[in-house]
Design a protein that fits this description.
little secondary structure; 0% strand
């Protein structure tokens, strides 16, 4: 008996993005219970980069 990799693939079920509808969203991430802090408060300044040449800044 030779397996050819088609067992279980005989159903024509739509892909998950084919099932979606405009305006429909999934679940969002859980709210964090960890307080926000800036990197400069948590990491000593000598370990932080001032600028990264050729790298775009954060989106605005």
């Amino acid at each position: 008996m030779e397996a050819n990799g088609t067992r279980g693939l005989l159903l024509e079920e739509p892909l998950i993005f084919e099932k979606s509808s405009p305006g429909r969203i999934g679940i969002g991430p859980a709210h964090s219970d960890v307080p926000e802090t800036s990197p400069s408060e948590a990491i000593p300044g000598k370990f932080l980069r001032k600028d990264l040449d050729g790298f775009p800044g954060p989106p605005r």
